[in-house]
Amino acid sequence: MIFEKLDGLKMKLDHFRPLEPAVVKTLHEDLILRWTYNSNAIEGNTLTLKETKVALEGITIGGKTMREHFEVINHREAILYVEELVGHREALSEWQVKSLHQLILKNIDDRNAGRYRTQNVLISGAEHRPPDFLKVAEAMEAFIRQAEQDRARLHPVEYAARVHADFVKIHPFVDGNGRTSRLLMNLELMKAGFPPVVLSVEKRLRYYEALDLAHTEGDYNPFLKLMAETVEEAFEPYWYALGVGND
Q1: Could you tell me what percent of the chain has a pLDDT over 70?
Q2: How far, in Å, CA of 102 to CA of 176, rounded?
């Protein structure tokens, strides 16, 4: 099974832990850049990978909107917050979800940052329709309860993928749901000792189709397969940095 392979990769990485500080620093800088670029690009941010790197250094890119720059800076802050939460080892909560979202929309839409939507929304290009805004609070309470149950019964990778898919099915916020869902997935992966994943923008169509299938038909298999592949890919930077093979 794919999960057995992922467990084997984790055991191999655990053998090298704790990693040398220089390796950790290199991997962390690379992760923040790739994660921020790809997650924002999936949502339509037009900054290139190199432009994202420059924006992370605090330099403004000519011809790009302030929103796009804030999306970069905010996403880095959200990643740092996720890493802080991992250290606390707390169960997933609505407070964590809202706090993450507040960082994502900081200086972009402060009125809605960290607040559940008060209007109905459509997911562009998707068949699935999120629940009525009046049902969002109840749906999120149920989401947290279900997550706690899933955490105890599912493999960590499947659990993290379900958190991602089930959260975005509710679409509790007016904007920023996709970025928040990927942050939540990585939060749960990292709690379990797996490396955070970077879903590449090149897989956007497959990603959206798999999510819509899970939401409309209840078939999570294509999404789970995509996420498992992405987790496997997440180990590769470690093998490169450590100078070991990836088999």
Answers
A1: 99
A2: 9
Q: Which residues are catalytic?
A: 171
Q: Are 95 and 102 in contact (CB under 8 A)?
A: no
How many alpha carbons fall within 13 Å on the CB side of residue 60? 6
Whole-angstrom distance, CA of residue 21 vs CA of residue 27: 10
Phi-psi map region of 113: left, alpha, beta (phi>0 left; psi -120 to 50 alpha): beta
Each residue's pLDDT tens digit, 22-71: 999 999 999 999 999 999 999 999 999 999 999 999 999 999 999 999 99
The whole-chain average pLDDT of the chain stands at 96
Residue 160 confidence (pLDDT) above 80: yes
CA–CA separation, 36 and 136 (whole Å) = 27
Question: Domain residues of the chain, as ranges?
Answer: 20-114+128-242
CA separation for the pair 170, 163 (Å, rounded): 11
CA distance 188 to 166: 14
Q: How far is CA 239 from CA 19, 65, 196, 245, 246, in A?
A: 12, 37, 14, 6, 6
Fold type of domain 20-114+128-242: Fic-like fold (1.10.3290)
For 216-241, what is each residue's pLDDT tens digit? 999 999 999 999 999 999 999 999 99
Structure tokens at 238: 């470690």
41 to 20, 27, 134, 204, 228: CA distances (angstroms): 31, 21, 31, 9, 21
Q: What is the pTM of this model?
A: 0.96
